[in-house]
Write a structure and sequence with these properties.
The protein is an alpha+beta fold. It folds into three domains: 154 residues; 141 residues, Beta-Lactamase; 81 residues, GAF domain (Beta-Lactamase). The protein is built from twelve helices and eleven strands. The strands form three sheets. A six-stranded antiparallel sheet has the order 3-2-1-6-5-4, sandwiched between helices. A hairpin with a 2-residue loop joins strand 10 and strand 11.
Length: 441
């Protein structure tokens, strides 16, 4: 009914008009998952009556609406915005007080001491409301932050194995885990202790500018901190910086808590992972579960990397052995070829020194014996070409094809053979291959 009242406040009327559409829009944004936009719109909705509460000094009770955006902001906004909101509400309350003191129209008669007491009571209520809301908001934000950290940790752990697929170096796998914990998830400090072949450990930490990795050799069997205890007991160890003795000596400020987890595969210790945080309450249960899953993922990646390295070592040894066999076979073939050439040269030299001619041949078209001796200088040009080329040589004439084929054994040319194809027939590629096989035999 105030909408049709000529004396009603225009700001309140506008607020009433857009109230329900804004609530509908906020509900739709929440359903769509746009929580940040819904929160901002809801805060705008709670702040809309503030100008009317400041200007409508005729009603002392409408200043109570300043509590609504204050409570909403304490529950929904982050700390910097909350501080700004408190400053804005305080300024609005001060403006209302100034306008109230300048309002001269008589509404009712109230003793001055009552007015002062009412203002003091309302200011106290407003202050207590703001303080309580800050405490509740702080607790809510702390739980929300820890829940968000746990979700981010589980999400990062879920994709860790895929991020190290194809990496078969132990140090690079550890470095990926440290980058995930310290740079992506924002933990205060992360360290990895890699087991060496000598039985000692190398501590890996992310370095500063210009230094990627800091490596330090350490013997965890003699270390009395929580990291050494985790390596000896093969169990998860959680340590606070408030603990006395050397158990918390590995915790570096500003960290307050440390969790050390053994990285194991098949009952064998492969390393230790240490994570430190500055949170006063340490690690939540979800974070501990996430660290355990990450340790298992690292152990699986390390095991796969070492299996791959062992496979590479075996393959390399086999390749080296095969290369040695090839070298030995090549040496044997070289010596055999040298022996053959030497024997053949010695045979030719003996025949030449005995007064015999340098070559002999067999011609099936001549005498019944088929043999005819001729000097090497009298060999036909086609035979000489076959001897010099080391391959089958074919001559075409009017009578058909004349084929000349060298006789080769272990790379040494010992002689040549020649024959003529029957008229009308040509030597095919398959027959040439058969001819090469015959000459080698």
């Amino acid at each position: 009914p105030q909408l049709f009242n000529p004396e009603s406040n225009a700001l309140l009327n506008a607020f009433y008009i857009i109230l329900f559409p804004l609530f509908g829009l906020i509900t739709a944004l929440v359903q769509l998952g746009r929580l940040r936009a819904a929160i901002l719109l809801f805060m705008l909705l709670t702040l809309m009556p503030v100008p009317a509460a400041i200007t409508q000094v005729s009603n002392p009770l409408n200043v109570v609406v300043l509590i609504v955006p204050l409570l909403a902001g304490m529950l929904l906004l982050n700390r910097p915005v909350q501080i700004a909101l408190i400053a804005f509400i305080a300024a609005a309350f001060a403006a209302r007080l100034i306008l109230q003191t300048n309002y001269t129209r008589t509404v009712r008669f109230t003793p001055a001491e009552n007015v002062i007491s009412h203002l003091v009571i309302f200011g106290s209520v407003l202050g207590l409301t703001a303080g309580s809301a800050l405490i509740v908001a702080s607790i809510t934000q702390r739980f929300s932050r820890r829940a968000a950290n746990a979700r981010a940790l589980l999400s990062g752990v879920g994709g860790f194995r895929g991020s190290v697929s194809g990496i078969y170096d132990d140090e690079r796998i550890f470095v990926r885990a440290l980058e995930l914990l310290q740079r992506t998830l924002g933990y205060t400090l992360a360290s990895a202790y890699r087991l060496n072949e000598s039985g000692s450990f190398t501590r890996l930490r992310l370095g500063g500018i210009g230094q990627d990795i800091v490596r330090t050799d350490i013997r965890l069997s003699e270390d009395l901190s929580g990291v050494g205890e985790a390596a000896r007991r093969l169990d998860t160890i959680i340590v606070s910086n408030l603990e006395s003795g050397t158990r918390s000596a590995h915790i570096l400020a500003p960290a307050r808590w440390s969790i050390s987890l053994p990285i194991m595969r098949g009952g064998v210790l492969l390393g230790v992972l240490d994570v430190q945080t500055a949170e006063p309450n340490g690690f939540s249960e979800d974070e501990r579960d996430g660290f355990l899953i990450l340790a298992e993922q690292i152990a699986g990646a390390l095991f796969d990397a070492r299996e791959f390295q062992e496979f590479q070592r075996i393959s390399r040894e086999q390749e080296e052995q095969l290369e040695r066999y090839r070298e030995q076979l090549g040496q044997v073939e070289h010596r055999s070829q040298q022996a053959l050439a030497t024997a053949w040269d010695r045979y030719v030299q003996v025949r030449t020194s005995a007064g015999e001619i340098g070559s002999f041949g067999f011609d099936l078209q001549r005498a019944p014996s088929g043999s005819a001796l001729m000097p090497a200088s009298d060999l036909p040009p086609s035979i000489r070409e076959a001897l010099s080329s080391g391959d089958v040589h074919i001559v075409n004439n009017e009578r058909g094809q004349i084929v000349h084929a060298p006789v080769i054994f272990r790379g040494e040319v010992l002689g040549a053979m020649t024959f003529q194809m029957p008229p009308g027939r040509l030597l095919s590629e398959r027959q040439i291959d058969v001819l090469r096989a015959i000459t080698s035999r």
